[in-house]
Amino acid sequence: MSKIRAAIKGIEVFLPEYRLTNQELGTLVDTSDEWIMQRIGIRERRILKGEGLATSDMMSQAALKLFEKTNTSPDEIELVVAATNTPDMLFPATACIVCDKTGIKNAWGFDLLAACSSFIYALETVTKFVESGKYKKVLLLAGDKMSSIIDYTDRNTCPLFGDAATALLIEPTTEDTGVVDKIFRVDGAGRAHLYMKAGGSQYPATHETVDNRWHYAHQDGQTVFKFAVSRMADAAVELMQRHNITPEELAYLVPHQANLRIIDAVGRRMGLNIEKVMVNIEKYGNTTSATIPLCLYDWENKLKKGDKLILAAFGGGFTWGAIYVKWAY
User: Would residue 256 show up in a list of annotated catalytic residues for this protein?
Assistant: First the structure.
């Protein structure tokens, strides 16, 4: 019997209409288009506007577009996993809320939170369910409303992040495509350098936590930069060596879109020409869980069946890793 692999069989996205440009940011904090482009590589980012709108609203729109694109009925979905760092609420899971908003009635689901590594961790998680042979159609969601946890008076973080959501259909295949291998790691000492202090069980919301601005994302940029470059590159290079993939054979590196300098450094470490590195950070900023599938969507028409891809990410925790995928369509 042929080995079952999990394959991406469709992808859709939802991008809010509102574009927050560097020029507008310059009216909020001491920054400029030149400063942001030189250091980060972001020109604009999408922001979800509207009273009560949340991550689930973006994910639901992406999912409905995916169902139409792939001719899939919500009744066919058996499992829903939502990779997100900004759930609508602590419970119920955002996956459950999306099921209600999209008419999914025959599935079970849950959220997965691993900072900016959430998507690749979730892709590996659903892969194991599909490889078991019990699941034929899995909905993998990845997205964040990062604007809900960003302090727009902090120039160290507010230029970085944007809002977006993606939806992927994951199905079994016996062809030589799909998810092949992964390398994931955690270094818990990194929790001191990238975090949101309040909102969990350690510091529930109080007047003090709000006054102290503890409900916003905080990061030590220099430390995160150094760790991200080395750890993402280490994992990606190890996967290439493990599977004897040369830079010429690799179709694309699909890196987390956190910082253009990080992306460039990882690509150079892998021996890749810039044409083989997916980059769209200029248009969307860091959408955390959504960055990698946003790249896949933007490059979808350029991908060919069997193309070898390495997806790499790094996030708070610290979490990081790389996953080797052969494109399935």
Answer: yes
